[in-house]
From TrEMBL:
Pfam families, per database record: Lactamase_B (PF00753)
Domain of life: Bacteria
Source organism (scientific name): Dactylosporangium darangshiense
Gene3D superfamilies: Ribonuclease Z/Hydroxyacylglutathione hydrolase-like
Metallo-beta-lactamase domain ranges (all copies): 37-208
PANTHER family xrefs: METALLO BETA-LACTAMASE SUPERFAMILY LIPOPROTEIN, METALLO-BETA-LACTAMASE DOMAIN-CONTAINING
SUPFAM superfamilies noted in UniProt: Metallo-hydrolase/oxidoreductase
Name recorded for this polypeptide: Metallo-beta-lactamase domain-containing protein
CDD domains listed in its UniProt record: metallo-hydrolase-like_MBL-fold
Length: 302
């Protein structure tokens, strides 16, 4: 059995009370809501509430209770950050006549293909890389800059609230989940960190766990993934395919197994080459090999 280290205090958010959620005032009528594993954000406007996503494990009841704890205004707009059910799977519980559901057209197409009644189709979509909306006096800018997570993924920028929502971009105070949060296109994932750093914001909401970030956290994640790439590049330069195959006793006619053990050896070597990140990120042992594998294949074929 694999033993994992406990998470350091700096990487943990607040304890979750019996209600099952914590609302965090992010300033200026903007609130984060988390149930511990997944989070999102809602904004009070002059006329109602704009909610980003409806995470499955928060659920409609808890989302409405969270919103109700700060305002009696109704949810007028729901913006989908991207298609994934863990982030929008409770949307059907909030759907009602008059609710505007906004998404990139690619997200709408993916929902249609999924045939999942938990995810109502958006009724406002846009194509291309950019859409600015005025919602009851608050400006929202939706930017689709690349497939850093999944096609149709959005940066949701609210300039006057100094807020950037970038769901599934990274984990605040931890390395990315699994393979760079399952980045559809790894070079776009690397580029996304630089793109995020160009926004003039104070808060960055990234969709998982119980902490909200800043641009400093974006820069930290950028530095971390750059270290992954540096380590992988050096490992690939020094770990030979034939040597790795021989060391693993791979039969001479099994080319696929050669490739498999070579990549495992590259990842193992890269893990040894990684500098220590324990003072800056929590849970550095959890997804290290997954992330190195994703970066290594990208370095190899992208
Ligand atoms: Zn996702």
């Amino acid at each position: 059995m694999t033993a994992f280290k406990p998470m350091p205090a700096f990487a943990l958010g607040p304890d979750i009370p019996e209600s099952g959620f914590v609302v965090t005032d992010l300033g200026g009528g903007t609130y984060g809501v988390t149930q511990g594993m997944v989070n999102t954000v809602f904004l009070e406007t002059s006329n109602g509430v704009v909610l980003v996503d409806a995470p499955l494990n928060l659920g409609g009841d808890r989302l409405l209770a969270a919103i109700g704890s700060v305002t009696s205004k109704p949810v007028t707009h729901l913006i989908y950050s991207h298609v994934h059910a863990d982030h929008i799977g409770a949307a059907h519980e909030l759907d009602r006549k008059g609710l505007q559901i906004i998404a990139h057209e690619t997200t709408g197409r993916f929902i249609q293909e999924a045939r999942d009644s938990r995810r109502p189709l958006p009724n406002v979509t846009f194509s291309g890389p950019h859409k600015a909306l005025d919602i009851d006096g608050t400006r929202f800018v939706l930017d689709y800059t690349g497939d850093w997570h999944v096609a149709g993924n959005l940066f949701i920028h609210v300039p006057e609230r100094k807020l950037l929502t970038a769901i599934d971009s990274f984990t605040v105070k931890s390395p990315p989940f699994f393979r760079l949060v399952f980045a559809a296109h790894v070079p776009a994932y690397f580029k996304a960190m630089d793109q995020m750093l160009e926004y003039d914001v104070e808060t960055v909401v990234t969709g998982h766990m119980a902490l909200y970030g800043t641009l400093e956290d974006v820069a930290t994640n950028r530095d971390y993934i750059n270290d992954l790439r540096t380590s992988v590049t050096e490992a690939m330069r020094t770990v030979g395919l034939q040597e790795a195959a021989a060391a693993a006793n791979v039969p001479a006619n099994n080319k696929q197994a050669e490739l498999k053990v070579w990549m495992e050896a590259v990842v193992a070597r890269a893990a040894e080459l990684m500098p220590s990140w324990e003072a800056r990120l929590g849970g550095t042992d959890i997804f290290l090999t997954d992330n190195l594998n994703a970066v290594a294949w990208s370095v190899s074929i992208d």
